[in-house]
Amino acid sequence: MVEEALRLKASLEGELSSAADLAAVEALMVKYLGRKGLITSLMRSLGGVPQEERPRVGKELNLVKEACDQAVRDRMREMEVLRQRMEEERNVVDVSIPPCGRPYGRFHPVAQTMEEIIKVFVSLGFSVATGPEIETDFYNFEALNFKAHHPARDMQDTFFLEDQRLLRTHTSPVQVRSMLSLGAPLRIVIPGRVYRRDSDPTHSPMFHQVEGLLLDEDVSVADLKGCLQVFVDSIFGRKLKSRFRGSYFPFTEPSMEMDVECVVCNGQDPSCRVCKGTGWLEILGAGMVHPNVLKSGGVDPERFGGFAWGMGVDRIAMLKYGLSDLRPLFEADLFYLTGGNGR
Ligand code: PHE
């Protein structure tokens, strides 16, 4: 009987060593040591052994059974160690695998440009002011010295709403709103959306402006030019040539437009699409605030004067990022807006 037990033990050991996985080891445990297992059954037949032999045989059988238990446990532990090692290998982070391109967010190019423009003026001592996009004729035109049937009103291609209201065509109405609420001296920039009935590669019906207004005693055109020159040099990151051309706005006198040298071709390419070979790019309208506008804002024109400007943010974004069409900026195409990294 003890021989039979030893034979079973040997075959268990043989089968254990060829067991492929934990499940196979567990099956062997049932087969040999379970309630109806081969060794268990053998132990049960101990009753058939003559009385005087039983203690010795029983003891030896117990030893064999314990050895079998031990063998199974050892094999299980080996299997577990193996399993853990395989899992670790599977979980290893391979830093050389290229990333799978998870989409991530960015600020819109126009928002970035707006932020940069504001930063430059804040560093020059300007504060930020805002106003409503739905305006009245008074703030958008009348207070800005547009006479009732002035042709300049048509130049603005206005979207009219009900109740005499309209979508502001520029950020200039906030000049007057700010004069009324803050008074002079004043140094503000006014970022915002504006609307005009206009759509082509360089015009969108909704676009962005940053207006500026500086009012103080003894402000001259030289201050205007110096301030805006500092601005273009910092926003484009290098010293740019510029020129001021005479122009007309009802709310400034004198009025001018500022051109900077073409940042795309540096004025070197007669077939440049951005400056159309002129070497110059118009980036803003400006001028010395008209006395009538100061009066609308409750500011004394005898004591205070100053300059104002309005620049197209989208235009500056186009130049900074070398875009030839403005409209895709407003079509919410994430692939375009994130430079191909958004999907
Ligand atoms: N409001 C003008 C425009 O939208 C720009 C401007 C602002 C010009 C302030 C002069 C002074 O075209």
Automatic annotation (TrEMBL):
Keywords: Aminoacyl-tRNA synthetase, ATP-binding, Cytoplasm, Ligase, Magnesium, Metal-binding, Nucleotide-binding, Protein biosynthesis. Its main location: cytoplasm. It is found in: Cytoplasm. Residues 119-328 form the Aminoacyl-transfer RNA synthetases class-II family profile domain. InterPro entries: aa-tRNA-synth_II (IPR006195), aa-tRNA-synth_II/BPL/LPL (IPR045864), Phe-tRNA-synth_IIc_asu (IPR004529), Phe-tRNA_ligase_II_N (IPR004188), Phe_tRNA_ligase_alpha1_bac (IPR022911), Phenylalanyl-tRNA_Synthase (IPR002319), tRNA-bd_arm (IPR010978). Its EC number is 6.1.1.20. Mg(2+) binds at residue 253. One of its GO terms (cellular component) is cytoplasm. One of its GO terms (molecular function) is phenylalanine-tRNA ligase activity. GO terms for biological process: phenylalanyl-tRNA aminoacylation. Its cofactor is Mg(2+). Tetramer of two alpha and two beta subunits. Belongs to the class-II aminoacyl-tRNA synthetase family. Phe-tRNA synthetase alpha subunit type 1 subfamily. This is Phenylalanine--tRNA ligase alpha subunit. It comes from Thermanaerovibrio acidaminovorans (strain ATCC 49978 / DSM 6589 / Su883). The lineage of its organism: Bacteria, Thermotogati, Synergistota, Synergistia, Synergistales. The gene is pheS.
